[in-house]
């Protein structure tokens, strides 16, 4: 019982909070996309899926004590964040981090 009390809540983590902020931003952007445009509708769906996955996987990684699960969650978060940064459709081009 004491071990559970010692663990901090994932909702206090700054990276989880930032993930939730990204989801809120993605939702607002998605609201601006017209559903009549098939291509943009697909991007809208991907945007919302990826944004919703970020905080979920951060919480899963924090709750997991197994290294493999933590790394799997980290890889999924990276996959969800990276594609949008270099997408020429959105005018970002090739960004260097």
- Radius of gyration in whole Å, from Cα? 16 Å
Low-confidence stretches: none
The helicity comes to over 70%
Q: Counting H and I runs of at least 4 residues, what is the number of helices?
A: 4
The N- to C-terminal Cα distance equals: 42 Å
Order of helices and strands: HHHH
Largest β sheet strand count, sense and barrel closure: none
Please state roughly what percent of the residues sit in beta strands, choosing from under 5%, 5-15%, 15-25%, 25-35%, 35-45% or over 45%.
under 5%
Determine the structural class based on helices, strands and strand pairing. mainly alpha
What oligomeric state is this? single chain
What integer is the average pLDDT? 76
Dominant shape:
elongated
Give me the count of strands.
0
